[in-house]
Amino acid sequence: MFFSPRIRLKPLAELCYRLAIATGAGIEDRKLWRDESQRGSRSQRRKISYVSEELARGRSIAEAIRSTGDFFPPLFRQMVEVGELSGQLDQTYSRLADHYERSVKIRREFLGRLAWPMLQLGMALLVIGLLIWIMGILPINTGAKGQQIDILGFGLIGTRGLVIYVNILIVLGIFMLLALQAFSRGMIWTRLVQRSVLRIPVIGGALKTLALSRFTWALQLVLDTPMDLRRALPLALEATGNDYYAVHGPRVALRIEQGLSLHAALAETGVFPIDLLDAIAVGEKSGRLVETMQRQSAEYQDRAGSAISILAQAAGYLIWLLIAALIISLIIRIFSFYLGTLNSLL
CB within 8 A of 304, min separation 6: which ones? Predict the structure, then answer.
């Protein structure tokens, strides 16, 4: 469902951290989840209460979590199932906590870099709103009809014009929020947009780096468990959050089932860089694939920092271009009004 509640990354990271400590301390699962049902947002308390009730009925943790629908991410649901079967739930929770904490850090850093350009955009929109309102209280008329002067030429003047202007901004804001929600839930129409953006020079490369950093981290996470590789690969690819990689999950799993190595199955997709494929090949041949992916994950985490800087800089430039376009448009409209006034007087 488009509007069905989903747990956010930061509460999820905190939940995994608490679960790791409590499980490692030997606290019973039913009590653990019952205590967790008292924390978090209303939707989080409701869903976790449901997990607690399912555990009280004798169901396993994995079954109880699956009964909440898509409130929890697929990687979380699958990893909990594997951790429960292998008897390593505390370690699984701890690894998941690290994974989601990294994701929170990346998002926070990106938004932090956008704070100043967004503030400037807000100030520019505020100035336009004030100008619209001020035009309504200025004692200036045009000709015998007594019409107020519209310096901006938008047809928005005074309090009524300001209300219309604010409503337009609200509608645009709602539209942007809905678009972000669609991207976060992987709606079908957003996949084409993702692929199109990846073709943009510099920006596309930065987005691929971020996706690969999530892939390498998730892959070393699932490889360090008894999970079947045919299940692990689609999960790691889905963890990229990008359809450019996630769409290959079923095909890669099928090729592994047919006997291909991990390196060969990933190479067939044509979307992974040579250096990563070579590292995976060496890890497979040496029997140290988990250690290899840990090193690759650390390397791509370093690259992700540069990618975030590039994306934030590009987004900042886009916002500044929008601000410049607004200012130039206002200058042209005001200057045109000034020339029109001079011509009418002449």
Answer: 106, 209, 210, 213
DSSP 8-state secondary structure symbol assigned to residue 227:
-
The amino acid present at 196, given as its one-letter code, is S
As for how many domains the chain has, the answer is 1
Q: Identify whether 65 is part of a domain.
A: yes
Tell me if 16 sits within 8 A of 90, measured CB to CB: no
Residues 6 or more apart in contact with residue 299 via CB below 8 angstroms:
216
Phi, psi dihedral angles at 142 (to 5 degrees): -115, 110
- For a pLDDT cut of 70, what percent of the chain falls above it? 90
Amino acid at 189: W
Rounded to an integer, what distance in angstroms lies between the CA atom of residue 334 and that of residue 337?
5
* Alpha-carbon distances of 329 from 88, 110, 152, rounded to whole Å: 62, 30, 9
Q: What is the largest CA-CA distance in the chain?
A: 90
In the numeric block, which tokens belong to residue 304? 């992700």
CA nearest neighbour of 242 among 287, 295, 205: 205
Query: Helix %, strand %, coil % for the chain, to 5?
Result: 75, 0, 20
At 325 the pLDDT is 82
**What CATH number is associated with residue 75?**
1.20.81.30
- Look at residue 265 and tell me if it is in a domain: no
**Amino acid symbol at 46:** R
The residues that bridge with 264 in the sheet, in sequence order, are: none
The reply to whether 64 falls in a domain is yes
Measure the CA–CA gap between 53 and 308, rounded to whole angstroms.
42
SS3 270: coil
- Rounded Cα distance between 135 and 151, Å, is 8
Contacts for 173 with CB less than 8 Å, ≥ 6 apart: none
What is the value of pTM for the model shown?
0.69
pLDDT tens column, 151-185? 666 777 878 888 888 998 899 888 888 877 776 66
- Cα 201 from chain centroid? 21
Count of residues making up the chain: 346
- Give me the domain span that covers residue 91: 9-100
* 284 contacts 262 by C-beta, under 8 angstroms: yes
